[in-house]
Hints:
Strand content: under 5%
Number of helices: 30
Distance between the termini: 38 Å
Strand order of the largest sheet: 1-2
Number of strands: 4
Structural class: mainly alpha
Radius of gyration: 40 Å
Shape: elongated
Helix content: 55-70%
Amino acid sequence: MNKRLLLRLVAILTLLAHGACSDEAAENAVPAEPEALARASFTLNKNDGSHAQAEAEVRPGEDAATAAVVFAERHSVNDIDSVLQIAERIVQVMREQAPNYEPPAELRLRTAGAHKRKAEELAKEADAHDEAAAHLVRALMRQGLEESMVETLKQRFGAQMERLAQQRKQEAAEAAEAAAAAARQAEEAAALVEARARAEAAEEDWRSHLASIKPAATEGGGSGGDQSGAAEPLVAVPLTMRRANADSSGESPGEEVVHLRLMPGQDVPGASYAFCRANGLHSADELVKLGTILEQRLAAAGIPPPPPPPQQQQQQQAAVGARGGSGHADGAASHVQRAEAARKEGAHAEAGASFARALQHPDAASLGEAGLEAARVGLVEMMQADTRFAPILEAVLAAQWETALALLDKVPRDERSVPRLQLLEARAAQKLGRWSNAQRAAARVVEATASYTAWVRGEPRMLAVALGSAAALELGDGKKALDFMQKVLQYDPDQAEIRKQYKQLKELLKLLADAETHVTKGYNHKGVAALEDVLHKMRGMAVGSSLFRAQVLLKLCRASSSMQKHEEAMNDCQTAYKALAEPGPGVHVSPVRVREALEARAVAHENDKNYDDAVADLRAALEQAGEGTEKANELRQGVQRVQELQRKWSCIDPTDRQAWQQNRCGPLRPENGRDHKVVLELPANLDQLKREDQCGWVTRQYRKLARKWHPDRYKGLKARAERKMRECSEAKEVLVKQLRCSAGGER
């Protein structure tokens, strides 16, 4: 693979990873190659005896030697005599096709010796073996060379072609690694979008659930208060209510006209209950009276009594089916049974309406005196509980989570333990990031509502399963998350959605455990591979929120940073921090998790010798830790330690006395400041070389790193490239002065 093709491959793979139609792709589009100045055709003999035609091209800025080396590399022509024949043929073609073209001056050195020395200089660079080989071809194309010189040049050409093959292999590996990193970065962005879409779907399930319990709890089925904007009532009865005491606003006792309304979709007992609850008439006798008034008005208007709401009718039909199609599912006793069942679930409005239907039923006397008294007491208790429940639900609907929990704390213990209130408690705790409380409350809901029936998405117990498993994952307890799903499968083995999630999560947790084992043992390469597999498998999973994914990314950040993969580590840390600090609307921001992300990113910055950002992140983490805590003291020590490294890194040039003293660098000796030899990746034995060789190394390494870190060419984090480029320039400037090198890099 030649250099032109390789560069285009890197760019194309990167663009594919980011999406070819994105704005970024447009900005980084591969520029079109300049038109060839000349083309020479050759016939290649293949190993199988066949022949193939191939072309060598000369483009602006190149010459015949460059084109010959590119052609030789592309078609595996390693024999120097064949390469020289190709170059001579290209020269002839150029005279015909581009007679006025003159290659750049740096390709037209005066003597073969000059080309040989240039080749030797380029051979010392890690990524210039093709240029070195081309200079050797130019030297061999000169006339009158001694045989020993020709033999030396040919041997060096062979060595350069071997090194070029190794160079291309390394470049191909780096290109694949860069493309993989870009692809994973794009995958992380897509995963974040998917996680937020799943979160929105879960929120929609919650909105549907809250809407299903809101009318009965907060509006009383549409019977109380002013309803001028509601549908036209079937009947409306004006009533005068007398306040016995002054209300909270300080008004004196008096009378008030209210309307008892029977709205479409209501039955008489339901309307009576809703009116009494809304107006504080906690009396079974008053409810029966109001029911009688509504029945009389309906009869006078010639309107038949409306049936119970659809949900009540479905329950009646289910009761009839349970009896094998015989008996009466709508008798007074059946209403009492439904009331008791609703009471156990915390459905106070539904329970109260069912008690009202029992008391107003034609065969209410069949309950007996004790049964009637129990129904009356149950009715009043449900009104009182419903009244207590209404402000809790209002706080939940208004996203006032602290208020909701405070109101729940005031509810009697036996009443608070019902599934409906436990589910709201779990929801409030989840929104406040109190994962332990959320998990426990959700577990109580699942335990109380478990039955051998179909578990359907959106119903309360399924909401509890999703909430509880997510809370367990946030706490790092994968086994507990599996337990929630296993409970569903225990009672409903055919629940396909949960079965799929259970299988995926079980496999995911095994991979995560393997990854942590590898990292703990110091097998970072294996750990990184396993963590990347974890992230890949999390794509499309309903389990594992963006917050859980962020925890995996932080582990990956730490492992990559310890392997000196600074770019990958920084991308992972940044993605994790964004997910934790900006988790999306309605999701609690955990200061502990944000602090952990800042700490991990600070370590990655420190390992990359970016001490300024490391200090900034540690200070931000300190703000999240809270004053006086053990973690705060630990972070404060970390800030001081990295500040000392930052101070020494700021000691750049001992000859700049003012800056040296301002940074408290100590005696004016190079070893007290930044190690510029490390910055330029110079050999450890540099001090043992001749001065001119030291200068040559400084120049070559600077050129190599300048090509790598130039912000216009670097494909990664631009801010990091600018910092590295600046540090390389500072290192070269200081070392050139210390070594007293000439402008050309030699003494």
